[in-house]
Amino acid sequence: MSDSSTPAGGRFVAPHQRLYVNIDHVATLRQARRGAEPDPAEAARLCEEAGADGITAHLREDRRHIQDRDVDALAAGARTVLNLEMAATEEMRAIAERIRPHQVTLVPERREEITTEGGLDVSRDQDGLARLIADLKRAGVRTSLFIDPDDRMVRLSYELGADAIELHTGRYAHHPDAPEPLAALDAASRQGASLGLAVHAGHGLTVRNVGPVAAIPEIEELNIGHSIVSRAIFHGLAASVREIRAAMDAARAALPASGTPA
């Protein structure tokens, strides 16, 4: 269930919009030399100290950045919570059940892609997804499905038993001035919240484009990584986390009390 409040006559509003920092690309830099530095677990600690509400890490099948040892270290050492992104496979299910992160976000995965290129098609293998979600719930792990902002995908996510949806913001990030991508995110957020799903969002968000997404009342959580790690090269990791946290907070502060954007 969502932890949003519902103003009378208004929309669901998350009282505090969480920032989960994805530290995958700290590991990408380390893996360039297969060494020990920089350490993703240390990066996670700095992000938490700077105001991150949680840490996100994607353990890919090909282990291109985050490694199994990183997941173990993050699960043991996170001062906030760990959101483990993973494909819907038996290997990953076993890992999630062993380390029991706060949340698992199920994502699509193709070896040839540079980064996740779209949402999970939850209309495929619905029985398998439902079983996996049920298994994770029995292990005490909440589940989120990374989907495109599409009404059918939102509805199916609810029917499969997910606790949350994470809306893929890639189309908006590539076309932030076009009205259609933001409108799709807004509509999917309303629909998800109306069904009792927690609504998250992420992919391609930066300090320059995060405002309109952060201002969607129903969105409780943003997952942001590449932009923060990239800006950290010039500004430092803690400063980059604080910078995007401030942009999110400014967008939320502009919402009227009813939760309906002005």
Automatic annotation (TrEMBL):
| One term of GO molecular function | pyridoxine 5'-phosphate synthase activity
Q: Where on the tree of life does the source sit, at the highest rank?
A: Bacteria
Binding-site positions, 3-amino-2-oxopropyl phosphate = 22, 33, 204, 225-226
Q: Which UniProt keywords apply?
A: Cytoplasm, Pyridoxine biosynthesis, Transferase
Residues the record annotates as the site (Transition state stabilizer) are 166
The record's catalysed reaction(s) read: 3-amino-2-oxopropyl phosphate + 1-deoxy-D-xylulose 5-phosphate = pyridoxine 5'-phosphate + phosphate + 2 H2O + H(+)
Q: What transmembrane ranges does the database entry give? A: none
InterPro entries, alphabetically?
Answer: Aldolase_TIM, PyrdxlP_synth_PdxJ, Pyridoxine-5'_phos_synth
Q: Which is a GO BP term held by this UniProt record?
A: pyridoxine biosynthetic process
UniProt keyword Transferase present: yes
Residues that coordinate or bind 1-deoxy-D-xylulose 5-phosphate: 24-25, 60, 65, 115
Where it mainly occurs, coarsely classed, is cytoplasm
Query: Active-site positions, per UniProt?
Result: 58, 85, 203
The catalytic activity of this protein is classed by the Enzyme Commission as 2.6.99.2
* Location relative to the cell: Cytoplasm
Q: What does the record give as its pathway?
A: Cofactor biosynthesis; pyridoxine 5'-phosphate biosynthesis; pyridoxine 5'-phosphate from D-erythrose 4-phosphate: step 5/5
- A single Gene Ontology CC term: cytosol
Q: Which NCBIfam families match?
A: pdxJ, PRK05265.1-3, PRK05265.1-5
Purpose: Catalyzes the complicated ring closure reaction between the two acyclic compounds 1-deoxy-D-xylulose-5-phosphate (DXP) and 3-amino-2-oxopropyl phosphate (1-amino-acetone-3-phosphate or AAP) to form pyridoxine 5'-phosphate (PNP) and inorganic phosphate.
Self-association state and partner proteins as the record states: Homooctamer; tetramer of dimers.
Q: Which HAMAP family match?
A: PdxJ
Q: Which PANTHER family match?
A: PYRIDOXINE 5'-PHOSPHATE SYNTHASE
> What is the similarity comment for this entry?
Belongs to the PNP synthase family.
Q: What is this protein called?
A: Pyridoxine 5'-phosphate synthase
Name of the encoding gene: pdxJ
